[in-house]
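quick q for whoever's on today - can somebody do inverse folding on this one?? i tried earlier but teh output was garbage lol. tokens:
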């Protein structure tokens, strides 16, 4: 399957996700596009970003010389905001497993129409689960941020995940470069189309079964 639809760029998608963050949330961001989140402006909101390797209060990339000891989960240089803290993995995962995270934002290889998430292994490839399995069961909300199609042009929103699961039924919301979906009473629901994209485009590029409610706002 191929598409010529432009959709949102990665920074634009990151800004779209940032619009829905709520003041005071503690948010973990996973490797890949979610790492763009701390650089997004959230006027009037204080968002505390958590990295699973032991940082709380992560800011955007430095404008000057980076500190090699201050990196995000993807080993990219970041800054620490006023009041930030660093700690060991045991405390970091106690935060994740203990329900202290309001949200984790993760990339995905596949999302099932029932909310299943697969984001750590392409069969035949190298595994890279990291802390995702802990995060998806410990965070109060799980949002996925991904391209609508994979590199081969296949839909990532599927009837069933064919890759090994990170967590069953854990996804609350999906942001792609083409659309926003939400699970409403565990039913996958199209909430929003990206600029220049219409519901017919989404239907042609989505394998999963879903309902459409473009009038309601994602809760």
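ok took a stab at it. sequence:
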């Amino acid at each position: 399957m191929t598409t010529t639809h432009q959709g949102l760029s990665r920074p634009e998608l990151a800004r779209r996700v940032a619009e829905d963050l709520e003041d005071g949330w503690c948010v973990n961001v996973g490797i890949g596009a979610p790492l763009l989140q701390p650089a997004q402006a959230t006027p009037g909101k204080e968002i505390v970003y958590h990295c699973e390797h032991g940082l709380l209060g992560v800011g955007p990339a430095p404008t000057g010389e980076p500190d090699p000891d201050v990196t995000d989960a993807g080993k990219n240089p970041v800054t620490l905001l006023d009041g930030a803290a660093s700690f060991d993995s045991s405390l970091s995962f106690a935060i994740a497993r203990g329900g202290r995270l309001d949200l984790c934002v993760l990339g995905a290889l596949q999302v099932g129409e029932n909310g299943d998430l697969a984001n750590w292994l392409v069969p035949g490839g190298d595994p890279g689960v990291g802390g995702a399995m802990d995060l998806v069961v410990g965070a109060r909300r799980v949002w996925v941020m991904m391209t609508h199609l994979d590199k081969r042009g296949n839909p990532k929103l599927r009837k069933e995940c064919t890759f090994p699961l990170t967590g069953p039924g854990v996804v609350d919301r999906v942001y792609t470069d083409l659309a926003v979906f939400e699970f409403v009473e565990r039913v996958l629901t199209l909430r929003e189309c990206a600029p220049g994209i219409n519901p017919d485009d989404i239907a042609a590029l989505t394998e999963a079964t879903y309902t459409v409610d473009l009038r309601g706002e994602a809760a």
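fwiw The radius of gyration is 17 Å. also The chain has one domain: 10-212. so keep that in mind when u check it
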